[in-house]
Amino acid sequence: MSSSQVDGIELMKEDSPLGRLASMFIWVAPNPEKVVFHLLEGVEKVLVEIYLPPDDRGRVIGKEGSTIRSIRTIFFSSLTPDDLEFDISLLEEGGTRRRQRTV
After folding, report:
1. Which single residue of 11, 21, 71, 96 has CA 20 to 30 Å from 27?
2. Considering the domain 17-92, what is its CATH architecture?
3. pTM for this predicted structure
């Protein structure tokens, strides 16, 4: 797995929901070593901010958003009722959020 930056929860644990999410992004991104995950833990949910370098965004987002939609669908469908709630945001240059989804 990549040496992506991780704040907060232990993200790289493969059997955790966040580990699976990280694996999908790292597998799809052409430069996985540049993918950065920031986790902000709240009382009821975790905000996962994912920064992708400009060169990787097109491949990860996919044509008309098909790749990122698939990643989100797989991630959110793999959650169990015991898991925390998550918000996922892709960050653009300057930290602007691209899209967010809550489950």
Report:
1. 96
2. 2-Layer Sandwich (3.30)
3. 0.71
